[in-house]
Amino acid sequence: MSSENHKDHAALAAKFNKDEARVDWHDQTLWFVRAKRDKAAAAVPDWELLRDTASRIKENVLSNLSEYLRQFEEAATRNGIMVHWAADAKEHNDIVLGILRKHKVDRMVKSKSMLTEECHLNEYLKENGVEVIDTDLGERVVQLADEPPSHIVLPCIHWKKEEIGQLFHEHLGTPEGNADPRFLTHAARLHLREKFLTRRAALTGVNFAVAETGEFVVCTNEGNADMGAHLADVHIACMGIEKLIPQRRHLGVFLRLLTRSATGQPITTYSSHFKRPRPGQEMHIVLVDNGRSTHLGRKDFRNSLKCIRCAACFNTCPVYRRSGGHSYHTAVAGPIGSILSPNLDRKKYSDLPFASTLCGSCSNVCPVKIDIHEQLYKWRQVIVQEGNAAAAKTAAMKTMTWVLSNPGVYHASGKAGRWFMLNVPFTVKNKWNAWYLQRELPEPPKQSFGQWYKKNRKV
Amino acid sequence: MRVGLFIPCYVDQFYPQVGIATLELLEKLGCTVVYPPDQTCCGQPMANSGFEHLTGECTNLFVKNFNEFDYIVSPSGSCVLHIKEHSHETAGIHNKIYELVEFLTDILNIDHLDASFPYRVGLHQSCHGQRGLHLAQMSELMAPPFSKPAQLLNMVKKIQLIDLDRKDECCGFGGTFCVAEEAVSVKMGKDRVADHAKHGAEIITGSDMSCLMHLEGILRRQKSPVTVKHIAEILNSNIES
Amino acid sequence: MSSRDTILATVKSNQPGPRDLPADYSAPTANAVDLTPQFISILEAIGGAAFLVSGYERIATILHEQFPDARRIVTSCSQLTAFAAAAAGGDPHELDTVDLAILPAHFGVAENGACWITESQMIERVLPFITQNLALIIPRNAIVATLHQAYDRIATLEAEGFATFIAGPSKTADIEQSLVLGAHGPRSLTVFLVDEHLSDAGFY
User: Fold this and answer.
1) Across the interface, which of B20, B51, B191 has its CB nearest the CB of A397?
2) Which partner for A261 in A110, A244, A312, B124 could form a disulfide, CB atoms 3.0-4.6 Å apart?
3) Domain region containing A95
4) Same structural domain for residues A340 and A368?
């Protein structure tokens, strides 16, 4: 995807906000998920200690990542899992295609993997003659609609049930006008069951991989990862190298945090631990770098690699809720996406760290205590210093700096500004003043505080 | 104790009454307050926009103006937070600068106020003050609730503090965000205002005039009867009815 | 240099300085508390059903009442072969027609209503997922408080090639956050908690 023609978050979010009722619906739905998270967290004594424990385990992982990767590879290989290493997205895609071709597979089922979204695997496989069916219901919806997911846990949260009903009517033959979630889910169940039963290859994501035992864990509510993997001759699991945890018992910490943070459930319906292939089956795991090893070297930003992809930050973010995932034009959106994406492409994603008021709510809900809002601030400094700020903004900032560093200039500008606002209001009350589009400007007072103080208090 | 009064640039230019209320309140509570006339800005607007590297001179001017005081007090959580965390000042200013509310509760330790404000008031929890300076507990954390601004407001006679659906959602001002992402910024502000209106607020207050300026802009465009007042103005009020 | 070598070298040179693992997290637990009520209440809240029973005869009776239309019933429990078929392993696809599978599990977890079941209890890995309805059987006294105790317990079991926590029936809320039970996995989950000390009339 070229970086030239995309619109930035502000423009895309403005478009999203044209339909205010829809924004309200999107915002309230996701706030409800945040509220469920709060309720679930409150029911766990020592929730904050649990977060702190998870954070420190992940920091230990990052500080020993090369050793844990070796340990995992060794243990997984002993278990009979074939371990592959992909330096970047292209290599990941080639490896997956290579495995499929070796088995003469041209049709595959896939459960949720944000990593494969990041690598644009589906398009690549399609170009190379492999049909991929996404089996997570939300992912299947967006796949049928030919668009990317807008949320890493709730892929079609931006779709209304009437729209899904229409989509299923067109693609699955359900009756027109039927928008009943139970009916539609059942239709998807039948439609996808046929795929599970007939596909010989299944690809899954990885929620956690355990260095100690060489196993990996896949969490779903729907059971789609398991339906695919246990019926397939070939199971391919794809993971970012940062998804390791040191020991099996650490799963107790992470599985207690993950789903409560994500949806407010105590745990997903299935938390499947894959250690060895089924007799007669080939099991592969692809360890993907794609910029992570570089990011690991950035002192200010490496902690974003602790992420366990729960999306709690999305649900709490007042900006995400009112702009929708597609406004971020990247695979992983929301606050965490805004600090991960600039690593993938600095220019293309330079707008994302600015798509925030730095309110700090995200950092508080993060189960592994990533300092998201601090990293957003720091990315802004990097982006500007590397020359990726808009020229107009730089000029304005330099002017502002000059004014605010010189008291005389500041007082004169303030006085002049207020005079203009009072006597020639059109200079600021016009459609080119973004503030004025939907807000009144403050009424300019006759004198500033400084002037009042000078008159009334200065001895 | 000598207190240096730091008035944010936009408060100086557009809301002098907030500066006056802050000054009067501090003096009522026994402080010797001085307003250094050459102060301008803390540097936050530049820093939050990615131009922290341009704020050196601004910070130096700030230190020059305020270094001599025992305490520096400002009616602005976000400015104080910026000085403490992002200004890289090395003169020790960050140890003695306080936002007004926390200065009253933590340094002056006041337990009563001679103030009266007979209105239904909604408290807007400004993010930098709350999550940055810990002026109040954050709804995301599983931790005991507290609120320094509410603590002070509850000392004001005849005041009625209302509840809100979303106690600490951001108003959407966010510095240059308010114009760079105008659509989302305004929508966030409209939703805050609607929450307060739903619960019958006559006046919205808070410790950051930037948030209130943004909400006021929306309220006035809506021709709403709801108005905004900085917490300093309420704590300094003596309105009987 | 292979990608593996490059990745490992870059990671090693970029890793931050040492950070120890934190002290072992031990959840506060009250000992000698009956965890059955919590387990049952959470399991029901997540869409499962629970029965406290004295033995396998009660299980068969209840399942017969709950699933009168089940045509193909399979089990790996030798105690239930009068009621259900002992399915042979082999081709997992063949299990597509199973209406009800009755399987033992090792233990339950009170904080989330989950049961831990391993491959050797499943006949085929796909069975607990492909069956239309699933019933699991655990000893009533085999309920632990939280996942921390669960992993302590798992450490005492032989490690198998596949195992999973199952918490309730399969579900999705992907359509406008409307919860629907029965996504791709089973449409119902029933857990039997066996307590021989119950009288025959004792049922939940």
Assistant:
1) B51
2) A312
3) 56-290
4) yes
- Please list every residue in chain B whose beta carbon sits closer than 8 Å to the beta carbon of residue A48: 141-143
Domain boundary among B75, B107, B139: B107
B171 and B196 share a domain? yes
- Please tell me the predicted confidence (pLDDT) of residue C204: 47
User: What pLDDT does residue C27 have?
Assistant: 66
**Cβ(C135)–Cβ(C100) below 8 Å:** yes
Residue A3's pLDDT is 38
Find the mean pLDDT for residues A356-373: 98
User: Which residue, C153, C198, C170, C196, is CA-closest to C48?
Assistant: C170
- Give the count of alpha carbons within 13 A of B218, CB side only: 25
Say how many CA atoms lie within 13 Å of B185 toward its Cβ: 31
C-alpha gyration radius of chain C: 20
Q: Model-level pTM?
A: 0.95
Please say whether the beta carbons of A190 and A239 come within 8 A. no
Query: B100 lies in which domain range?
Result: 2-107
Which residues does chain C have within 8 Å of residue A136's beta carbon, measured at their own beta carbons? 174
Would the CB atoms of A439 and B214 count as touching at under 8 Å?
A: yes
Query: Which pLDDT does position A6 carry in this prediction?
Result: 62
Residue with tokens 């049709």: A107
Contact B43, B78 (CB under 8 A): no
Q: Which of A372-381, A394-403, B8-17, B70-79 has the lowest mean pLDDT?
A: A394-403
Best mutation target among A195, A267, A287, A296 (most C Cβ atoms within 10 Å) is A267
pLDDT tens per residue across span A308-338: 999 999 999 999 999 999 999 999 999 999 9
Same domain, A85 and A204: yes
**Considering only CB atoms, which chain A residues are within 8 Å of B15?**
442, 445
Amino acid letter, A112? K
- Judging contacts by C-beta atoms under 8 Å, the chain C residues touching residue A231 are 92-93, 126, 130
Residues 40-69 of A with CB under 8 A from B: 41-42, 44, 47-48
Is the ipTM higher than 0.90? The answer is yes
Alpha helices in A103-206 (DSSP H): 114-118, 121-127, 137-144, 161-172, 181-198
Over residues A122-127, the mean pLDDT reads 98
C-alpha dihedral (B99, B100, B105, B106), degrees to nearest 10: 40
| Residue pairs spanning A and B at CB distance below 8 A | 211
The answer to whether C20 contacts A60, with C-beta atoms less than 8 Å apart, is: yes
- Tell me whether chains A and B touch (3+ CB pairs under 8 A): yes
Query: Which residues constitute the domain of residue C133?
Result: 51-171+179-194
If asked whether residues B177 and B73 sit together in one domain, one would say no
A79 to chain C, minimum CA–CA distance in Å? 8
The closest of B115, B109, B185, B127 to B153, measured between CA atoms, is B115
DSSP string for A399-422: HHHHHHH-HHHHHHHHHHHHHHHH
Instruction: Encode pLDDT of C107-164 as tens digits.
Output: 999 999 999 999 999 999 999 999 999 999 999 999 999 999 999 999 999 999 999 9
User: Which two structure tokens, joined as six digits, stand for A418?
Assistant: 């207020």
Instruction: Return the minimum-mean-pLDDT range out of A77-91, A298-312, B51-65.
Output: B51-65
How many domains does chain C contain in total? 1
Q: Which of B5, B236, B233, B234 is nearest to B120 (CA)?
A: B234
Q: Would you say B9 and B2 are in contact if contact means Cβ atoms under 8 Å apart?
A: no
Residue B191 CA, chain-centre distance (Å), reads 20
**A279 membership: H or E segment, kind and range:** none
The total of structural domains in chain A comes to 3
Residue A355 contacts B, CB cutoff 8 Å: yes
- Show the tokens assigned to A56: 């420190």
Reported confidence tier of residue A443, pLDDT bands at 50, 70, 90? confident
Q: How do residues A182-237 score in pLDDT, each as one tens digit?
A: 999 999 999 999 999 999 999 999 999 999 999 999 999 999 999 999 999 999 99
Q: Residues of C with CB below 8 A from A367's CB?
A: none
